[in-house]
C-alpha cells in the first residue's frame, strides 16, 4: 500500500481493496487488512447480545457497507473508530500472521544435517516493528486461532511453533480460498494437539528401525553388493506406513505406488512385506528365479503386489510398479494403473459421463529431489492431474530429498529454490519435513492423505534427508562432497537418534525400546538362517515368489473376428443416427454421414475411419470397453474420425458409440495434453489394470512417438521379459511418405522392429480398412496379451482403392498377416518376380503394374511384420515355380523402414537373394521438397519392377 494512501479516504480504492480482501485477506497490505478486520469485528459485536461469545465471529461480507470515511459510518453498526496507533498495531499483527504463513518455511528446521534452522531476519519480532513493550500487549485476529486475545509474545511463539518447526509449509500460492483456509486451520491447531500415544510412538520407532537394521544387515551379509539403500532416508517408511494405517478410516482400499531404485528393497521388505528369505536369496551369486519364461531384472527394479492386513483386521491392497533406472518414467504408468483400479472398484460403468469414485485407490509416487526438479516427465504427469481423461483424484508425492543428485549439488541441478517448486503449477500444497523427526512425518503423512481424500488433488511431502553412502554402496561420496560425507559418517542413524530421544524423554523405557530393536533384528537373523537351510538342502521351492504372470505363447492361429451382416448394419445405423434437434456441422451432415449411409446401403465401400468405428462398436456390444486417447483424437488429426459430434449451436457433445445398446461396454475417448511420454505411459499403465479393455494411444504423427521413447523401450517392449507384466495396448502411429517433409512422414518402424524378439510386440503396417477392423478386434479375442504397434495411414484414409466391402467384415473373415494381390495369384505359373512390401506403397506398385501392363509380377503385402508368419508365406508361394527375382520395396530410406529387419528373414527362409527397391540411405526420413519426393517415389516404384 502506498504510504500516502489511508484506508480513511478514497471511496473507489476502499471498495476495490475491500473486494480483494473478501476474496483473500492476505492479498492486501497489512494496514488495509487490519482496517477491514476491525470493521467486520465491530459489525459482529453490534449484532451479538453476547460480545464475548461473538467476538470471534465474522459477519457475512455481503452485509457490510462500503463507505469512504469510517468516522461517518452509521452509529447502528457499532464499528469502533480506530485511531492511528491502534490501526498501526493491528496492521503489524496481520503482517506478522501473513509473513509466517507465507515465509515460515524458510525458517523451518527441515535439514537433519543442520543442528538448527537458518534464521530468516524478516520473521523476527523486531522486523515487524514491535517494541519490547508490545510483547505483553493483547493481540488478536479473526483469522488466527478463532480470534482469541493473547499476549503478542504468545501469538508470536505460536506462529513460530506452527510454521517454523520441523515442517515447512508452502500453500499460499494456492488460488482456492477454501483449500488455503483448511490447510491454515490444520497447521495452526498442530502446536496444541496432544502427543502421540505410546502405541503410536512404538510403531514409529519400529517403522524407522526396520529399514535401518535391514540395510545394515544386507551390508554385513552381502558386502560390496549394490542395493541402493535407503540409509539416511529411513523416514520414508514412516511416511508410507502412516498413510497405510490411515487408509481404512478415509475409505481408501488400495495404494498404487511407483518409485526409483533407491530404497526399493527396503520398501519391498518393510512395507509390502515381500519374503525376507526371497530378497536375501536374490543377493546370492547362484540366484535363479522360480520361473523360466523371461530374462528378469535386477532386484532393485522389481515390482510386487500384496494385500496388507492391519492390526484391526482391515485390509489394504498395495502394488508397487516395476521400474527401470529411468527414475520418473514410472509415474505416468502408476497413474494409469490407479485409474484402472478405480474403475474396477467402482464397477462397470455404462452411463455416459458417470463419475468414478476415486477415493478408493490412492496413487503414491516416490521421487528423488534431483529427478523431481530435473525430469520433464514429472511436469507432464503433474499436468495430467486434473484432466478429465487422466485424473486419479489426486496423488500423494513423497520426495526423498537426498540434497544431491548422484554427485551434483542442488546449486548445479536446479534453478528453483526447492526441488518441489514444479508442483506449484497445479496448486499442490508442499510440506518440507525433517526426515529424522518421525512424529512430524506421521502428522504430515496423515494430513496429506486427508487433504487428498477431501479435495481430490495432489499434495507433496518433501522429506529432507541424506545418503549415508554414495550413489550406491560401492561409490565413494567423499570424492566430491568431503565435508558432507564426513558429517554423515559421524552421525548416528535416525532410528538410533529417535530411540535415544524416546528413552531420554521417558516416552519409552530403555527395555521397551531395546525389545523393539531386538525383535526386528531377530526377524532378520531368522530369515537368513532359513535361507541357509534351504540352500544346504538344495530346496528352491520357496524362492518362486513373484506377482508377475506367465501367459500362453504367441500363436499365428487365425482368430475369427468377423461379425454378422445384421450386427454390422445395426452398429452402422446407430453410428449414423443423431438425436432429434441435434445441429451437426453442415460439412459432416452433407458428406460424412451420407457417405457412411451409402456404404451400409450398398454393402461397401467402407473407409478406414468407418471400419475403425465398426470394430469399436462390435467390441462394445460384446460388453468390452474401449479407450482411445492422444492429441486431437476425437476429431482425428486428419479430420477423418469424428467419433464425437458437436452441436454447431451450443457445442453439446454426442458420442454415437455410447448409444449402441443398454448393456454395452463404455467408449472413452479423450483429447490429451500435448505430451507423448506422460500420455502413452498413462495408457500403458491403464492397460495393465484393464486387460479386457481395448486401450489405444494415437500419436498426432507417428514420428512424434519418439517423445515417448523411454516408455516404449523400457516398458512396452521389455516388460514381459523383464517383469512378466503383460499388456495389450495399441499404438496408432500415422505413417506414410506423402511429401510432407522429414517430420511428418515416418513413424520410424525400424526402431520398433529393432526391439522385436521373443514375440514381445506385434508390429503391423496395414493396407485395408477391414484388416484394421480385424486386428483391433483380435487384440481382445485371443488368450494372450501383446502390445500392438500399427503404422496407420494418412493418404490411405481417403484413397479410393483403400476401401473394403461388407464381406470383408462379416462371418468367417479374419486378420491376414500376409496379403497376396488377387490378380497374379490367379495365374501363378506366369509369375517371374515377387515384390514384397508393406503399407501404402502397395497401391503405387499396383498402379504402375496396371499402367505398364505387367502381368508376370506378384505383389505380397506383409501386413504383420512381426511376429512373421513363415508358414503362411510358404503356403502363399507354393505354386510359384518360375520366380527368378525377389524384391523388397519400401518408401523409407534404406537404413530405415523394414528392410534391415525383413531382408534376413525372407532371404534365410527362402534361401534366395532379396533385391532392394527404395530410397537410398539417409540421415533424414524424407526430403522436404515436394518435387523431389515425387521424383523419388516414381523412381523407387519403377525400380521394384526392374532391379
TrEMBL record:
Swiss-Prot/TrEMBL GO biological process terms: tricarboxylic acid cycle
Q: What class of enzyme is it?
A: oxidoreductase
Q: Does the keyword Flavoprotein apply?
A: no
- Identify the keywords attached in UniProt to this record, alphabetized: Oxidoreductase, Thiamine pyrophosphate
Transketolase-like pyrimidine-binding domain sequence ranges = 606-799
The cross-references to InterPro entries, in alphabetical order and at most eight, read:
2-oxogl_dehyd_N (IPR032106), 2oxoglutarate_DH_E1 (IPR011603), DH_E1 (IPR001017), KGD_C_sf (IPR042179), ODO-1/KGD_C (IPR031717), THDP-binding (IPR029061), Transketolase-like_Pyr-bd (IPR005475)
Presence of the UniProt keyword Oxidoreductase in the record: yes
Q: What is its EC number?
A: 1.2.4.2
Q: Which GO terms describe its cellular component?
A: cytosol; oxoglutarate dehydrogenase complex
- Cofactor requirement: thiamine diphosphate
Q: Which GO terms describe its molecular function?
A: oxoglutarate dehydrogenase (succinyl-transferring) activity; thiamine pyrophosphate binding
Q: Where is this region: Disordered?
A: 45-64
| Compositionally skewed regions (Polar residues) per UniProt | 45-57
| Record function comment | E1 component of the 2-oxoglutarate dehydrogenase (OGDH) complex which catalyzes the decarboxylation of 2-oxoglutarate, the first step in the conversion of 2-oxoglutarate to succinyl-CoA and CO(2).
Q: Belongs to which family?
A: Belongs to the alpha-ketoglutarate dehydrogenase family.
Which protein, by its recorded name, is this?
Answer: oxoglutarate dehydrogenase (succinyl-transferring)
Which species is the source of this protein? Answer: Persicirhabdus sediminis
Amino acid at each position: 500500500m502506498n504510504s500516502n494512501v489511508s484506508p480513511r479516504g478514497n471511496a473507489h480504492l476502499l471498495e476495490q481493496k475491500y473486494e480483494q480482501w473478501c476474496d483473500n485477506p492476505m492479498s492486501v497490505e497489512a494496514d488495509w487488512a487490519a482496517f477491514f478486520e476491525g470493521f467486520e469485528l465491530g459489525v459482529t459485536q453490534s449484532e451479538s447480545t453476547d460480545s464475548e461469545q461473538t467476538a470471534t465471529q465474522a459477519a457475512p461480507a455481503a452485509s457490510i457497507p462500503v463507505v469512504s470515511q469510517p468516522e461517518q459510518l452509521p452509529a447502528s453498526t457499532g464499528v469502533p473508530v480506530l485511531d492511528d496507533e491502534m490501526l498501526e498495531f493491528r496492521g503489524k499483527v496481520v503482517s506478522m500472521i501473513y509473513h509466517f504463513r507465507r515465509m515460515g518455511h524458510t525458517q523451518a528446521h527441515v535439514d537433519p544435517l543442520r543442528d538448527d534452522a537458518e534464521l530468516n531476519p524478516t520473521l523476527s519480532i523486531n522486523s515487524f516493528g514491535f517494541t519490547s513493550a508490545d510483547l505483553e500487549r493483547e493481540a488478536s485476529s479473526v483469522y488466527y486461532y478463532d480470534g482469541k486475545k493473547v499476549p503478542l509474545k504468545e501469538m508470536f511463539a505460536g506462529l513460530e511453533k506452527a510454521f517454523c518447526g520441523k515442517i515447512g509449509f508452502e500453500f499460499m500460492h494456492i488460488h482456492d480460498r477454501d483449500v488455503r483456509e483448511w490447510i491454515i486451520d490444520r497447521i495452526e491447531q498442530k502446536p496444541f494437539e496432544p502427543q502421540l500415544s505410546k502405541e503410536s510412538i512404538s510403531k514409529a520407532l519400529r517403522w524407522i528401525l526396520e529399514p535401518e537394521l535391514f540395510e545394515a544387515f544386507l551390508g554385513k551379509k552381502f558386502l560390496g553388493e549394490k542395493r541402493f539403500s535407503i540409509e539416511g532416508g529411513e523416514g520414508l517408511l514412516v511416511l508410507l506406513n502412516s498413510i497405510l494405517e490411515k487408509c481404512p478410516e478415509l475409505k481408501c482400499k488400495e495404494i498404487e505406488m511407483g518409485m526409483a531404485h533407491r530404497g526399493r528393497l527396503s520398501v519391498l521388505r518393510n512395507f509390502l512385506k515381500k519374503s525376507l528369505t526371497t530378497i536375501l536369496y536374490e543377493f546370492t551369486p547362484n540366484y535363479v528365479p522360480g520361473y523360466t519364461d523371461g530374462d528378469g531384472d535386477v532386484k532393485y527394479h522389481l515390482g510386487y503386489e500384496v494385500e496388507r492386513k492391519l492390526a484391526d483386521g482391515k485390509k489394504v491392497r498395495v502394488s508397487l510398479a516395476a521400474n527401470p533406472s529411468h527414475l520418473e518414467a514410472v509415474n505416468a504408468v502408476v497413474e494409469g494403473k490407479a485409474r484402472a483400479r478405480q474403475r474396477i472398484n467402482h464397477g462397470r460403468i455404462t452411463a455416459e459421463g458417470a463419475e468414478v469414485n476415486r477415493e478408493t485407490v490412492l496413487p503414491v509416487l516416490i521421487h528423488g529431489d534431483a529427478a523431481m526438479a530435473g525430469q520433464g516427465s514429472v511436469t507432464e504427469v503433474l499436468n495430467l492431474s486434473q484432466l478429465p481423461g487422466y485424473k486419479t483424484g489426486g496423488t500423494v508425492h513423497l520426495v526423498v530429498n537426498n540434497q544431491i543428485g548422484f554427485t551434483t549439488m542442488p546449486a548445479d541441478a536446479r534453478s528453483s529454490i526447492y526441488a518441489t517448486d514444479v508442483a506449484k503449477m497445479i496448486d499442490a500444497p508442499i510440506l518440507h519435513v525433517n526426515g529424522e523427526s518421525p512424529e512430524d512425518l506421521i502428522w504430515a503423512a496423515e494430513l496429506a492423505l486427508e487433504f487428498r481424500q477431501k479435495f481430490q488433488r495432489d499434495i507433496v511431502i518433501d522429506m529432507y534427508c541424506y545418503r549415508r553412502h554414495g550413489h550406491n554402496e560401492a561409490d565413494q561420496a567423499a570424492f566430491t562432497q568431503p565435508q558432507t560425507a564426513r558429517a554423515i559418517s559421524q552421525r548416528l542413524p535416525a532410528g538410533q537418534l529417535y530411540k535415544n530421544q524416546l528413552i531420554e524423554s521417558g516416552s519409552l523405557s530403555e527395555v521397551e525400546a531395546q525389545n523393539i530393536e531386538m525383535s526386528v533384528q531377530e526377524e532378520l537373523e531368522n530369515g537368513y538362517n532359513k535361507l541357509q537351510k534351504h540352500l544346504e538342502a538344495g530346496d528352491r521351492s520357496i524362492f518362486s515368489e513373484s506377482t508377475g504372470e506367465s501367459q500362453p505363447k504367441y500363436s499365428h492361429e487365425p482368430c475369427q473376428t468377423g461379425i454378422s451382416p445384421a450386427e454390422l448394419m445395426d452398429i452402422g445405423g446407430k453410428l449414423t443416427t443423431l438425436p432429434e434437434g441435434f445441429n451437426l456441422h453442415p460439412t459432416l451432415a452433407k458428406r460424412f454421414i451420407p457417405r457412411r449411409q451409402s456404404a451400409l446401403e450398398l454393402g461397401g465401400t467402407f473407409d478406414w475411419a468407418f471400419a475403425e468405428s465398426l470394430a469399436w462398436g462390435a467390441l462394445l456390444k460384446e460388453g468390452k470397453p474401449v479407450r482411445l486417447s492422444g492429441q486431437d483424437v476425437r476429431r482425428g488429426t486428419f479430420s477423418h474420425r469424428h467419433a464425437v459430434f458437436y452441436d454447431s449451436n451450443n457445442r453439446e457433445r454426442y458420442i454415437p458409440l455410447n448409444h449402441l445398446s443398454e448393456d454395452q461396454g463404455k467408449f472413452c475417448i479423450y483429447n490429451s495434453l500435448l505430451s507423448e511420454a506422460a500420455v502413452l505411459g498413462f495408457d500403458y499403465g491403464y492397460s495393465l489394470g484393464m486387460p479386457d479393455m481395448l486401450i489405444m494411444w494415437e500419436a498426432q504423427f507417428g514420428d512424434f512417438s519418439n517423445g515417448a521413447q523411454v516408455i516404449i523401450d523400457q516398458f512396452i517392449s521389455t516388460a514381459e521379459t523383464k517383469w512378466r507384466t503383460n499388456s495389450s495396448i495399441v499404438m496408432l502411429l500415422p505413417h506414410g511418405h506423402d511429401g510432407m517433409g522429414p517430420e511428418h512422414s515416418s513413424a520410424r518402424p525400424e526402431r520398433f522392429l529393432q526391439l522385436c524378439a521373443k514375440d514381445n510386440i506385434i508390429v503391423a503396417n496395414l493396407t485395408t480398412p477391414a484388416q484394421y477392423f480385424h486386428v483391433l478386434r483380435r487384440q481382445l479375442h485371443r488368450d494372450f496379451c501383446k502390445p500392438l504397434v500399427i503404422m496407420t495411414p494418412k493418404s490411405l484414409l481417403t484413397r479410393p482403392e483403400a476401401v473394403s466391402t461388407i464381406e470383408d467384415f462379416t462371418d468367417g473373415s479374419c486378420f491376414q498377416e500376409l496379403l497376396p494381390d488377387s490378380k497374379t495369384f490367379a495365374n501363378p505359373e506366369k509369375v517371374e518376380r515377387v515384390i514384397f512390401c508393406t503399407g501404402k506403397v502397395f497401391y503405387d506398385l499396383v498402379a504402375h503394374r496396371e499402367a505398364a501392363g505387367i502381368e508376370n509380377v506378384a505383389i505380397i503385402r506383409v501386413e504383420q511384420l512381426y511376429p512373421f508368419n513363415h508358414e503362411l508365406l510358404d503356403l502363399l508361394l507354393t505354386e510359384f515355380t518360375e520366380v527368378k527375382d525377389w524384391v523388397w520395396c519400401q518408401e523409407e530410406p534404406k537404413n530405415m523402414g523394414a528392410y534391415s529387419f525383413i531382408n534376413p528373414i525372407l532371404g534365410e527362409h527362402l534361401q534366395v537373394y532379396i533385391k532392394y527397391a527404395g530410397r537410398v540411405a539417409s540421415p533424414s526420413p524424407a526430403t522436404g521438397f515436394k518435387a523431389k519426393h515425387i521424383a523419388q517415389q516414381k523412381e523407387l516404384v519403377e525400380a521394384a519392377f526392374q532391379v
